[in-house]
Structure formats: structure tokens, C-alpha cells
Design goal:
Layout lengths: L1 H19 L8 H23 L6 H17 L1
Helix pairs in contact: 1-2
Length: about 80
């Protein structure tokens, strides 16, 4: 079952990259770097969630990071 999930989102990531990459012109180096970084980070997060489903998601990470700041600002 994990193999099917990994294969599925890998195929989706490849299709997204094949669809979007040619649309970016050669002069758009920063956009290509940002696209590649976000795609890789998304793929890593998907792999982690397949093998460790109890891993907190990005929303929970943001709550953990900004909760102390919110309590300081509310005082």
C-alpha cells in the first residue's frame, strides 16, 4: 500500500514538473529555483507522511513556532 502511495505522488510531482517547467522562460532562474525547492519539499513531506502518519503537519509546526509570540503580544 505504501508503494502505491509513493508511486502515485511521485507520478503527480513528475507530471506537474513536466507541465510547468517548459512554461518558465530561460530568464526565470529564481522562479525555477523556487519551484524546484517547493516541489522537493512537498515530495519530502509526502514521503514522511506516508511512513510516519503521526508526524505533525505544517499548520501544527506554525502553531508551535508562533504560539509563544502570540502570548507575548497579547499581554
Amino acid at each position: 500500500m505504501k508503494f502505491a502511495a509513493i508511486l502515485g505522488f511521485t507520478v503527480i510531482l513528475v507530471f506537474i514538473t513536466l507541465y510547468e517547467w517548459p512554461k518558465m522562460k530561460g530568464q526565470m532562474k529564481r522562479e525555477k529555483i523556487a519551484f524546484a525547492a517547493l516541489t522537493i519539499l512537498g515530495g519530502i513531506l509526502a514521503f514522511l507522511l506516508v511512513f510516519y502518519p503521526e508526524t505533525p503537519g505544517p499548520t501544527q509546526w506554525m502553531d508551535a513556532i508562533f504560539k509563544p509570540l502570540v502570548t507575548i503580544l497579547e499581554k
